[in-house]
């Protein structure tokens, strides 16, 4: 796990670099898919959709980056499985990054974590949902406790939006660093699949 407080000036460079290094462990992907999990019902759970909306504007029409989960079209418990099924069908060779808010210990509030394993969404609310992504980034928005629905509901939206800005910058930088490698990998595959015009004469 890699982590940094969102106010740390090194957070964007440090956490985006962690994502790129994870990608480089098996760079066989053809595109990047970012799944931003959450809902606008609770301010504390809005981090994912708000990040998704920012990234959708930034990567609108981008050849190699796809965003699922925005404020207008959130990805949440009710449609998560359907979304993942769609991604598996239409983006079978994508490097999938999940984004979500989470609750944690009081002294960790404001921390951003890049975790090199799939996201297990809904953990703070004791929901059993399918895992998402090859890697995930999450922001600790409030304190974990016995009334997590109420905690999420009363989390400061201003605070969440400040974290959203940093998470968005991290993901933009990571995508910008990974995208040229995706192009290179695509070109290499095309060369390998091209017919061999130098076959020996018989």
Give short descriptive properties of this protein.
single chain; 202 residues; alpha/beta; Rossmann fold; 6-stranded mixed beta sheet; 5 helices; 6 strands; 39% helix; disordered C terminus
Could you describe the 3D structure shown?
With 202 residues, this protein is α/β, with parallel strands linked by helices. The protein has one domain: 3-Layer(aba) Sandwich (Rossmann fold), CATH 3.40.50. It is built from 5 helices and 6 strands, in the order E-H-E-H-E-H-E-E-E-H-H. A 6-stranded mixed beta sheet has the order 1-5-6-4-2-3. The longest helix is centred in the last third of the chain and has 37 residues, at 157-193. The protein is globular, with a radius of gyration of 18 Å. This is Spore protease YyaC. It holds the Pfam family DUF1256.
